[in-house]
Design a protein that fits this description.
396 residues, alpha/beta, Rossmann fold, globular
């Protein structure tokens, strides 16, 4: 048994996708342990290989390119992925490592590894997402059984998961306030737009209520709507196309403050469906860190902690009414809003979140060493969690 010297992470999100929770946390934890960030495979390659990317100080991304056609951490990829990961770990002499999972779907990929411990950062209820595979729940059960510590990405997720493990901790999304401070020049892609401007930044997928976006634009043709973020899992043809909606696609994390600071009101037009029941939107705090007011639908992790500063509305007409009220606020109302927001932002930071996680991982590591526990047997947990064919294959 040895002290952990590497954190091996399996993630369904690519490092260079939207800069969010995994990047914030792991780039900070890399100050304590080198991080290897294994992405889900890129299918249809000419040959099986891993692309190594120096992503941040202390973080190396391993992007597998595999010949198989399946998407995600599919069992078809398992033999090739396991061989490549084992070879890479041998070459880099990675021993005494812990494995960190962002998705239970990666668990079968790791069943030949022998980690000293396992961390599960449950940032979403993945089983509720469009296209979630049926074996995900069995694999999540196995992940809870083998994990030493579980983090959740918000209060409602924590409430849903806290009875499933003895060591679950709630870490809602946080914010890097300095990054979003105002005083930024307006972004050139929107500088030509007149005010008022309303904006959204983030992924545009089945979690966004496009009727709200289209409805606001139709009801207020003199308002400009700026939509920043990549489209995923929905048909781009379903996006409302009106002259006062600007779809800008994915932009860099470095550029977000220049967009947000140029908006009069920020939007969180989430659909209320299975895939948004447990979300804790990072952008709530990013909008606040820019000092911008926002309007949201009734997402529980927005309503409960921030309902006193974020108006909650259900449809386009409600959003229009709330946005108008915000734009007509008195200087005194503005000052009160700014004070309330500053207080919220001062209580949270990604630095503090990462540090608290670091301490919990050290405690979990000390507990394992005190009990002299052997390396985790992932294959056995997968077999136990599932009598299904998927489980049998996973553990083979």
């Amino acid at each position: 048994m040895g002290t952990m010297n590497t954190l091996v992470v399996f993630s369904h999100l690519r490092w260079n996708f939207v800069y969010q929770r995994p990047q914030h946390l792991l780039s900070r934890l890399a100050e304590h342990w080198p991080v290897v960030f294994i992405e889900e495979p890129v299918p249809g390659a000419e040959s099986d290989h891993i692309e190594y990317i120096a992503a941040a100080p202390g973080v190396e991304v391993w992007r597998p390119h595999l010949r198989g056609a399946a998407h995600g951490f599919h069992l078809d990829h398992k033999p090739a992925l396991q061989r490549l990961v084992a070879e890479s770990m041998r070459k880099q002499d990675i021993k005494n490592y812990w494995v960190w999972f962002y998705t239970p779907m990666a668990l079968p990929m790791a069943d030949k590894l022998e980690p000293e411990g396992i961390i599960y950062d449950c940032m979403d209820e993945l089983s509720a997402f469009r296209g979630a595979p049926p074996q995900l729940l069995d694999q999540e059960t196995a992940l809870y059984r083998s994990a030493n510590v579980v983090f959740t990405g918000g209060r409602s997720l924590y409430n849903a998961k806290r009875d499933r493990h003895r060591n679950v901790h709630c870490f809602p999304s946080s914010v890097d306030a300095l990054h979003f401070r105002s005083g930024t020049e307006d972004h050139p892609l929107q500088a030509h737009l007149p005010h008022p401007r309303l904006g959204y930044c983030g992924v545009i997928d089945e979690r966004i209520d496009l009727d709200i976006i289209g409805g606001i634009a139709a009801q207020r043709p003199d308002w400009q709507l700026v939509m920043v973020g990549p489209t995923a899992k929905i048909d781009p043809a379903s996006l409302p196309r009106l002259p006062n909606i600007l779809w800008l696609g994915q932009q860099s994390y470095a550029d977000l403050p220049a967009f947000i600071n140029g908006w009069d009101v920020c939007l969180m037009p989430f659909a209320l469906n299975e895939s948004t029941r447990f979300i804790s939107p990072t952008k709530t705090l990013e909008y606040m860190a820019c000092g911008r007011p926002s309007v949201s639908t009734a997402i529980r992790d927005v309503v409960e902690p921030y309902g006193h500063v974020v108006p909650i509305r259900a449809d386009a007409a409600g959003f229009v009414e709330a946005c108008e009220a915000i734009m007509q606020r008195s200087a005194d109302d503005k000052r009160q809003h700014d004070q309330a927001v500053d207080e919220i932002i001062s209580r949270t930071s990604w630095d503090a979140t990462a540090d608290a996680m670091y301490q919990l991982i050290l405690q979990a590591e000390a507990a394992r060493e005190a009990q002299e526990l052997p390396a985790v047997n992932i294959a056995a947990e997968l077999r136990r969690a599932s009598g299904t064919a998927a489980g049998a294959v996973s553990a083979s």
